[in-house]
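RING-type E3 ubiquitin transferase
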Amino acid sequence: DRVSIQQWIDSGNRTCPITKLPLSENPSLIPNHALRSLISNFAHVSPKESSCPRTQQEHSHSQSQALISTLVSRSSSNASKLESLGRLVRLTKRDSLIRRKVTESGAVRAALDCVDSCNQVLQEKSLSLLLNLSLEDDNKVGLVADGVIRRIVAVLRVGSPDCKAIAATLLTSLAVVEVNKATIGSYPDAISALVYLLRVGNDRERKESATALYALCSFPDNRKRVVDCGSVPILVEAADSGLERAVEVLGLLVKCRGGREEMSKVSGFVEVLVNVLRNG
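Tokens:
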């Protein structure tokens, strides 16, 4: 899409090809890392399925009720819950009606309980389901109210690498809603857990934690919180290693006084910026 948009602009067009509204005199393209991350992880945790005809969709809707019943039943074994979660993840990937059905059925509480499980596979599938459910804007605030942040923070600290990456992506999705940015930012250890993951995680974990921090830092009050967690040297190191999203976070932190002060203390900070500019 970026190539097509750039070609449109380079051809001298100064109106949006969709809305026909005028663009600025010298429009610049800014990558939406949060959206890119959500799309990437959505595909990662929910394997691609072929489109199904109407009869198969109707079957999926009727099937979902049985899967929900298994998930919420206290008598269900972990194996049966895992099977139900896996199939619900596939069903909720593209079907908004099933996402709403799962939410309205009370299955969110059961999924949250599975996140608390010591079974890492069960934990990963439940996080994937919650990520799918969070695609509905109406669910984002409800998930936070149901206590999802506490579970996410715990997973960011002690979960498996895949679970940590999905948990960070889930925070990014929830932070699309402005009120959630404030709630997540003020939650004890939420930001510090992301900063810690940025420091010690693998490539995927670091990318997702940086994306979540970027989404949260669009809320001004969170910038000081991120700075106070000692993030600036970690972000500079990540930027120096080529993590583009770390540069984007620094671009937001520089807007607060504390961020600028911390950046001035980092040895070689200017050199890192020069290298970033030189290498694109």
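Residues 31-279 form a domain with the Leucine-rich Repeat Variant fold (CATH 1.25.10.10).
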